Amino acid sequence: MITMIAAAAENRALGKDNQLVWHLPNDFKRFKNLTTDHHIIMGRKTFESFPKPLPNRTHIIITRQTSYQAEGCIVVGSIEEAIEKCPKNEDAFIIGGGEIYNLAMPFADKIELTVVHHLFEADAFFPEIKTEDWELINSDFQAKDDKHLYDYTFETYIKKQKTPQ
After folding, report:
1. I need a labelling partner for 100 at 20 to 30 A (CA). Which of 41, 80, 124, 152 fits?
2. Which interval of the chain is the signal sequence (predicted)?
């Protein structure tokens, strides 16, 4: 199963200047729990925003730079090639950024989205989730607290099956 996993604000903002614009420790925990021991697919800029590769995950980096290398990572030139590198019988996660989410939307089976209940200025955005294509199957609201400046909701979507005409 191909799952897109992201945290996006109410205006679909993902981040600015290749950085998140909020800090939600519970979202980081959820991301780690869901993606550990799986393949994660990302764009080069997302990969370069990490201080080091994320532990216990196979990194697949999509870039147009044909000579790009990253130690211990798989480097590919397209979303199709990235998906092809993932084991067919295991879950794989698309982790960003905005351009990669747009490219991956037709291939995704599931979306794990953390909606941050605030509006942010951003330069990267999550694509619109069209209700005719996706079904919300779980929604778990979390109120802000001393470690979380904003309310947020964990949402899970699955792709609707197209009925033949």
Report:
1. 152
2. none
